[in-house]
Amino acid sequence: MEDVTDRIARPWGARAPFGRHETWPARVDTFLADGVDPESVQRWVQSASILHSDGDAMDIAVADGRMVGVRGREVDRVNRGRLGPKDLFGWQANASRDRLTRPLVRRSGRLVETDWDTAMDLVAARSRELLDERGPGSIGFYTSGQLFLEEYYTLAVLARAGIGTNHLDGNTRLCTSTAAEALKETFGCDGQPGSYDDFDHADVIALFGHNIAETQPVQWMRLLDRFEGADPPRLLCVDPRPTRVAEHAAVHLAPRGGTNVALLNALLHETIRHERIDRDYIAAHTVGFDELAARVADCTPRWAAEICDVPAARIEEAAELVGTTDALVSTVLQGVYQSHQATAAAVQVNNLHLIRGMLGRPGAGLLQMNGQPTAQNTRECGANGDLPGFRNWQNDAHVADLARVWNVEPETIPHFAPPTHAMQIFRYAEQGSLRMLWISGTNPAVSMPELSRIRSILSQRRLFTVVQDLYLTETAQLADVVLPAATWGEKTGALTNADRTVHLSRKAVEPPGEARPDLDIFLDYARRMDFRDKDGGPLVTWDDPESAFEAWKRCSAGRPCDYTGLSYALLRDTSGIQWPCDERNPEGTARLYTDGISWAHPDVCESYGKDLETGASQEAVEYRSLNPDGRAMLKAAAFWPPHEEPDEEYPFRLTTGRTIYHFHTRTKTGRAPQLNDAAPDVWVEISTGDAERLGLGEGDLVEVSGRRGALRGRLRVTGIRAGLLFVPFHYGYWDTAGGSGPGPDAPGRAANETTVTDWDPVSKQPLFKTATAALTLVERGDGRPSPAPTTTASAPAATGVAPPTSGGPAARTTEREPTEFPHAHEEGAR
Fold it and tell me: DSSP code of 360?
């Protein structure tokens, strides 16, 4: 067991070295509330993390009916007992005094408390009224990546077969819709090919736009432990910021924003030019190689260097690194996903693995990562708009099969057009065709782009807004009905992480007041609406989490995400199993595509694909002609510059992102004292050169303004690439005097005041990485430190700024943790 009292200052804890192909040693991280010792814990209740996509397994400590701490599960394959800072401390938010405990309804412009019957009757009455007057297209649902599998599945059934609407999506649209789309474009189906276990066997690990040290900190612990063991892996880091990953990289590329396709095409060019490819694998398992080779034939490192603003020699080094290894693992996240060519870029990473034959064996894996704890469940259950079980909305046989599972007529299930993505749902609300929007477990008034627009949409009197959440968030403050929800630890359900590992999270304590599990709320709505199947029986036939899980298993049977071999009993007895888990794979499946590409055949694929430039859906006939045997598709893409380029008025590019201490809009982590103290307020990162040129210094209060809005924060001078500003997107207004947002024409605090309403044409994911901005000084810092952490990618630069001990509460307890491994590449280390 490790002492975790300094895990704010040292987020990744102590090292347990292990060598390549060895088993990662266990280390149990435990944190108990003040005054609680292990002997006073009455029960330890099985669960897993709800504050990132790692799926770290943990037990919840309970005493006298209260949560009093957590510990990592030593036997779990994902984390081997380790927990990151958010897991160790974030559970405290459950007991926050401002939890919602009774429903609220808007009366005379104010939200007032009421009872559940009044609130739900109002929701059901408005639903029936709109169905009668305007039809199912007038109702939409916008959900989360933080609920449980059983809740997403129930929501998908009642929305698609009950209401009959095509307007159902999750906030996974903002973070990992590109992951799903890129996998469908290449493999015909969603589902991560690789496994976290591949980190133990890899020789080279390439992280494309993925700051794993802060977004999946336990997997970074895994890599740190390998770095100190025998035969450590070499890293390729593609990130414009000097992250902890970059410190340990053999090669660190910091490209200009929006140029990932150019960089990846150059890596493919070099890989093919030097014949670092597996031609037998390409011939046996892929289509499209000749077109890909032709497309990248002129994409030399010198060509890419001009576009990306990185040295051609460094691109050549990166190409050699990924092209000569015998075991390559690649991961991809928001630095790729939140750009104008998001899917095109992510697909090129898939292409790199396919032409090298790097799939389906230990250490040769691909992870199009997720940003949220249950994003995978959103996608597989159909709460992101797609059909449940990775069925194809364009395939009538798939629709008929789903109709059989639900016992409804096929025409009941909307499949006349592509599912409506979140950005379009809000546009329909803005235009007035959508008149009711039910938002569950997410806070778009802080997380969506161009916040002044989102506030305006949610404030419309004609839009009936239902918000289901734990707190009176910025979004809830604009709602007509607010439903108090139970959360992790207060309800039971399954959750699936980014490498397909299914965990069971069990109820440990009662929710506060009258708060209810999201599943119970959805079931109540289904009963009040009296949704029926084609025989007149109840459409939703389950009444608790376990029966909902069993219903989902029937829906998943025979599909790529087959859960039929799983059960609550099995998940209680074990600690994480990867799907598919069925008769053929009773212990789960570590890696997909070990024997070829299995779900790309025209008859079974989840998608017929899209045009990578326009996003237009391909038809079945076109797909069948291009890929009749169901092989992986090597889809080429030309580079196109970002939609919005810096100019004299807005000379900087602005990118948003995360810090290790917070999750999404801080509704949970901002209420955990250790996490809030570590990063209490928004900050703005700038390069040392830009700061010197503009006469700005550490701690100066600055205003970041764009074409859509502005925000203010204190400056942190870092090693970020020149011409780029970074702002964490976590900070909204619930913990400020205003509470809901800035006044008219006043600068805000939220990064998304400045981001653009625009999206990748294929995945429809918003472009949080490519806005443009101007920077102006508001007042001198006069020695006041930036609130930015000093322990992470936001650490101050080595010179010209305040010393590490002056910035942020983490620095008040320790200086910046030193680089842990001497073999980091000289140019990649700070």
Answer: S
Examine the domain organization and report whether 167 and 182 are in the same domain: no
Give the max Cα distance, the chain.
Answer: 74
Query: How far does Cα 393 stand from its chain's mean position?
Result: 24
Rounded distance, CA 197 to CA 637, Å? 31
Q: Is the pLDDT assigned to residue 268 strictly greater than 70? A: yes
365 and 380 fall within a common domain? no
Contact 450, 712 (CB under 8 A): no
What does the alpha-carbon distance between residue 474 and residue 667 come to, in Å, rounded to a whole number?
Answer: 10
Same domain, 74 and 137: no
What's the structural domain count of the chain?
4
- 61-97 residue pLDDT tens: 999 999 999 999 999 999 999 999 999 999 999 999 9
State the CB neighbour count (10 A cutoff) for residue 599. 20
At 3 the pLDDT is: 66
Do residue 426 and residue 540 come from a single domain? yes
C-alpha to C-alpha distances, 374 to 260, 366, 380, 383, nearest whole angstrom: 27, 19, 10, 11
CATH number where 671 lies: 2.40.40.20
* pLDDT at res. 1: 53
Q: What is the mean pLDDT of residues 413-421?
A: 94
Which strands, in side-by-side order, build the sheet including 139-143? 110-113, 104-107, 481-484, 464-469, 436-440, 139-143, 168-170
Residue-wise pLDDT tens digits, 294-307: 999 999 999 999 99
Residues pairing with 496 in the sheet: 502
Tokens of 475: 């979004």
Strands (E), 436-555: 436-440, 464-469, 481-484, 493-496, 501-505
Rounded-to-integer distance, Cα 738 and Cα 413, Å:
43
Q: Is the pLDDT of residue 811 over 80?
A: no
Say which amino acid occupies 408. Answer: V
Over the stretch 530-550, which tens digit does the pLDDT of each residue have? 999 999 999 999 999 999 999
Average pLDDT across the chain, whole number = 94
Q: Are residues 327 and 270 in the same domain?
A: yes
3-state DSSP assignment of residue 698: coil
What's phi and psi for 664, nearest 5 deg? 45, -125
CATH number at residue 439: 3.40.50.740
Residues 443, 446, 448, 453: is their CA dihedral positive or negative? positive
**Is there a single domain that holds both residue 418 and residue 330?**
no
State phi, psi for 300 to the nearest 5 degrees: -75, 160
Q: With respect to residue 740, please indicate whether it lies within any of the assigned structural domains.
A: yes
Domain boundary among 40, 70, 98: 98
* 657 shares a domain with 704: yes
Q: Which domain holds residue 759?
A: 652-798
For residues 50 and 92, membership in a common domain is answered with yes
Residue 506 exposed, middle or buried by CB count within 10 Å (0-12, 13-18, 19+): middle
